[in-house]
Design brief:
Layout (H helix, E strand, L loop, with lengths): L1 H14 L4 H4 L2 H24 L12 H4 L2 H20 L1
Helix pairs in contact: 1-3, 1-5
């Protein structure tokens, strides 16, 4: 699920034209903010829609940390790939 949310965050950034050419130095802040928003959405999906609790995930606050590395890696790689393809 975090993998899918990372891809959605990257696609959102490209669709909204979040890059240095359109937003200048502000693009990094907006891009990271979009990434954080999608990560928080994934936490809320796990917690509220799927109703996983600490016991089901075998640890306290695991709904926040589980899959975080995958999210960050996929989000950055897909963002770079899509920006390379669209700005080339």
């Amino acid at each position: 699920m975090r993998f899918s949310f990372a891809i959605l965050a990257a696609i959102t950034e490209v669709v909204l034209h979040v890059n240095v050419l359109t937003l200048g130095d502000f693009a990094q802040i907006v891009g990271v903010a979009i990434g954080i928003v999608f990560y928080m959405l994934s936490v809320m999906v796990v917690k509220l829609l799927l109703k996983y609790d600490d016991a089901a995930l075998k640890g306290k606050n695991r709904q926040i940390t589980l899959g975080g590395g995958t999210y960050i890696f996929v989000w950055i790689m897909v963002t770079v790939l899509l920006n390379t393809l669209t700005l080339a």
